[in-house]
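[recover] target loaded
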């Protein structure tokens, strides 16, 4: 089956080559009027395809920007959650300190908050902050690419887009 497909493809290519080389070997003469009409049409078609390709690139770029914005919003929400949790821990510590109770139980709770829960919370929060920074950089880059595509589209369409 593969051999037949290859043979058919080879025959087609040879036929196309013969047709093209046959046209190239014809004596120089003025092109037929239909050829003169098709060149501007071909140029217009190519320009239209270029514009359509730019529009598709812009749509994809807009999708990428929306995805990054969504991811960034999720990371910011997560960071906000960690900040609220950290604030609650500090309020607990302040209320325990204000109670002034010097019992061992209060000191145990304080040491648990300061020695275990707070460092764990900060360790979980650090990667989220780094992710926010990375997403913010990516968002700026993708928005710059989108702006560049919009400028290209504007220049291709002579100022009218979409």
């Amino acid at each position: 089956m593969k051999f037949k497909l290859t043979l058919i493809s080879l025959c087609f290519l040879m036929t196309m080559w013969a047709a093209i080389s046959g046209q190239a070997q014809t004596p120089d003469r003025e092109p037929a009027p239909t050829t003169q009409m098709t060149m501007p049409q071909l140029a217009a078609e190519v320009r239209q395809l270029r514009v359509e390709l730019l529009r598709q690139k812009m749509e994809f770029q807009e999708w990428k920007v929306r995805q990054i914005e969504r991811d960034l919003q999720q990371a910011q929400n997560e960071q906000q959650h960690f900040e609220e949790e950290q604030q609650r821990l500090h309020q607990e510590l302040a209320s325990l300190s204000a109670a002034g109770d010097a019992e061992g139980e209060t000191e145990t709770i304080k040491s648990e908050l300061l020695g275990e829960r707070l460092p764990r919370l900060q360790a979980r929060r650090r990667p989220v902050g780094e992710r926010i920074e990375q997403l913010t950089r990516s968002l700026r880059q993708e928005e710059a690419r989108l702006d560049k595509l919009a400028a290209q589209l504007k220049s291709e369409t002579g100022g009218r887009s979409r």
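[recover] notes: The chain has three helices and no strands.
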